Each structure stands twice: as structure tokens, then as C-alpha cells.
């Protein structure tokens, strides 16, 4: 069985929420390949003890590196706890990442509640479930 590849991303004010969520769902996340933007990935590895492939920090191109995984059909879900109340200098990159998830039918969770529903779905780790991918 191939492991799912999940991306973990969080803006600065949302990093504690993502860490608490990852800790709560550690047993599920251990069954997946994790990738993350730089700082978030370091925190998940150090504080939760999960192995994470780290990309650059979001503002330095990490969001775009994750976007490339989506475009190459190498990402199964994105957990992006973004901060809607604080402007980010790389906001266009954030919007592009979310847009790619919609274009390629990749599940994306932006809040702990949505992330809970995604990872606890009976379909989440099911090898039989294959989301429909568009053909352009």
C-alpha cells in the first residue's frame, strides 16, 4: 500500500493550532508521508516527533514547492492553517496554492474542524478511494 503524501502549512499565528492538531492525530499522520514548509516542518518534527520533508519557508518559495507537488499529482491532501486576520506578504502564493487544490481536486483543510473531518473519514486511509483527477 502506498502511503498518502500530506502537506502541512501554517501561518505564524496558526502554528500552535496546527501543532495541537498534529499531536491529536499523530497516529494517523505516522501512516503518511509528510511534507511541510520550512518553519512549520521543523516544529512538527521537533515538537511532535514526526518525520517531515521540509521545503523552503512559505514566503521564500515553500508554498510554490508544495504547489508543484499538486500540479505533478504527488500530493494527496493539504492541511493549510492560514490566518485570515493577518495579511501575509506572500498572499498571492497562498491563493495560488489553494487554487491548485481546486483545479486538481486535492482535499484541503484550512481549519482544525475541517482537518478533523478529513482525517477521520473512513475514506482517508482507504486504498480503494481514488479521487477523480481532471484531464486537461
From TrEMBL:
Domain MGS-like: 1-136
Family matches, as CDD domains: MGS
GO cellular component: cytosol
Top EC group: lyase
Keyword Lyase appears in the UniProt entry: yes
Keywords recorded for this protein, A-Z: Lyase
Amino-acid positions noted as binding substrate in the UniProt annotation, renumbered to this chain: 11, 15, 37-40, 57-58, 90
PROSITE patterns, alphabetized: METHYLGLYOXAL_SYNTH, MGS
SMART domains with a match to the protein in the record: MGS
Family statement: Belongs to the methylglyoxal synthase family.
Function recorded in the entry: Catalyzes the formation of methylglyoxal from dihydroxyacetone phosphate.
Protein name (record): Methylglyoxal synthase
Organism: Alteromonas genovensis
Gene this protein is translated from: mgsA
